[in-house]
Amino acid sequence: MNKALLAAALLLTVLACWAFYPKPVDETGYMTVTLYINGSSRGDLVVTAPDGTVTAQDLGRQKSLTQMRGLLLVKVNELRRQGWQVVQMAPNRIIGTFASGTDTYYEDVYLLEKR
């Protein structure tokens, strides 16, 4: 009986220790999702991951500025469903004078964080 109690106590101790074993940590860090639209209305959707990996999607010229911004929001919402939170959004309008004339560039940047 003494051995059975000792075995039960050891088993209970092992189970209790296993319950508090550290769980694997999810990926944390910051990510950016950026929409670049140049003067000829060509758009690029660029995602920069926490590890520095950059993926770009060419949106072409067929879409309007509003449609491209809609695609940007679709991507941001997709990432929010994966656990990312929007920390900051910065819209930029850049006007530059070049040899071909004056062009306007748009850049919408979303900074996301995973906690």
CATH topology: Alpha-Beta Plaits
Q: What is the helix content?
A: 25-40%
Shape: rod-shaped
N to C succession of SSEs: HEEEHEE
- What class do helices, strands and sheet pairing give? alpha+beta
Q: Can you lay out the helices and strands and say which pair or pack?
A:
Elements: H1 2-19, E1 29-37, E2 43-48, E3 54-60, H2 65-81, E4 85-98, E5 101-114
Antiparallel strand pairs: 1-2, 1-5, 2-3, 4-5
Report on the architecture of this protein.
Keywords: Signal. The protein has 115 residues and is α+β, with helices and mostly antiparallel strands. It is built from two helices and five strands. The chain has helices spanning 2-19, 65-81; strands spanning 29-37, 43-48, 54-60, 85-98, 101-114. A five-stranded antiparallel sheet has the order 3-2-1-5-4, covered by helices on one side. The protein is rod-shaped. 9% of the residues are buried. The mean pLDDT is 80.
Structure summarized in a few sentences:
The chain has one domain: Alpha-Beta Plaits (2-Layer Sandwich), CATH 3.30.70. It is 30% helix and 43% strand.
What keyword list fits this structure?
115 residues; 5 strands; 2 helices; alpha+beta; signal
